[in-house]
Specification:
single chain; alpha/beta; six-stranded mixed beta sheet
Length: about 270
């Protein structure tokens, strides 16, 4: 048996593994199936929710994969077993949901259990969930609940719209939460110590290898710890400029629209 350069392939989804249409391209799907066939673990690490990611993985001929979802608040295997979770405390989650923001420029979301809740109808969000059909329920958050909250996220028209809210959230909740941008327009709040890296570290405790045996790809500020702590971290050419400046020593590859992760993986693992 030939030695594998890495035991696990770990990838973010939006802006990384997914193409410009927010789906897994055919070239990428074939690449991951061949990689899995070689015995490499496939781990998707994303801000997306579990039900959304499972639907996309189920379209591939892969028997064994893991999903680090909601930026590391949950880890599931492909059979649906919850391997790890770290939720916001119920009262804290509800309190954060009551924060004031400009409803003309920002809307509020939460992932709780397998549901996605949203403060207003935003039909344009559907394009991100074409393959899975994962969809939201519009709720009045003042009448909502904080149970099983993986994350609360605020989506703004621009980064500038979110900056005052980010500052206020960090001042009020910074010692009890993890607050990070997944994209320049999406500010996310999870429980303290939630990150893709901490969830990945938890996941590999069940494996016969550790973080140094993983290769990982990402494009956002929510990928910093993961890319820093694995054996080899790679930054997308289309990554958030802030990520590139924070991790200047990491190799940069091509664009997600060119399915560059799959091309890189083929070269590293000798898949033809």
């Amino acid at each position: 048996m030939t030695m594998l350069p890495f035991r696990a392939f770990v990838s973010d989804m939006d802006g990384t593994l997914l193409n410009g249409n927010h789906v897994i391209g055919e070239f990428t799907r074939e690449t991951l199936e061949k990689l899995a066939h070689k015995g490499v673990d496939i781990i998707l690490a994303t801000g997306r929710g579990y039900a959304d990611v499972l639907a996309q993985l189920n379209m591939m001929n892969i028997e064994n994969a893991a999903m680090v979802t909601s930026n590391g608040a949950e880890v599931h295997d492909l059979k649906g077993n919850l391997l790890y979770s770290n939720y916001l405390p119920e009262d804290l989650a509800f309190e954060i949901m009551q924060e004031k923001f400009d409803e003309q420029t920002i809307f509020l979301n939460s992932y709780q259990d397998n549901d996605w809740f949203i403060s207003t109808d935003v039909p344009s969000m559907a394009k991100y969930h074409k393959d899975s059909g994962f969809s939201y329920q519009v709720v009045d958050f003042s009448q909502h609940h904080g149970r099983h909250t993986q994350k609360i996220f605020f989506i703004g028209k621009t980064l500038e719209d979110l900056l005052p809210l980010e500052q206020r959230l960090k001042e009020k909740y910074g010692d009890r939460t993890s607050i990070i941008y997944s994209t320049p327009q999406c500010l996310e709040v999870m429980n303290k110590n939630v990150s893709k890296a901490s969830a990945l570290a938890e996941l590999v405790t069940h494996k016969a290898y550790d973080l140094s045996d993983c290769i990982a790809f990402g494009d956002g500020l929510n990928d910093i710890e993961m890319l820093s702590e694995v054996g080899k971290g790679l930054v997308m050419g289309n990554a958030d400029p802030r990520l590139k400046s924070i991790l200047p020593d990491l190799e940069q590859i091509g664009l997600n629209t060119h399915e560059s992760v799959a091309s890189y993986v083929r070269a590293v693992f000798g898949i033809y």
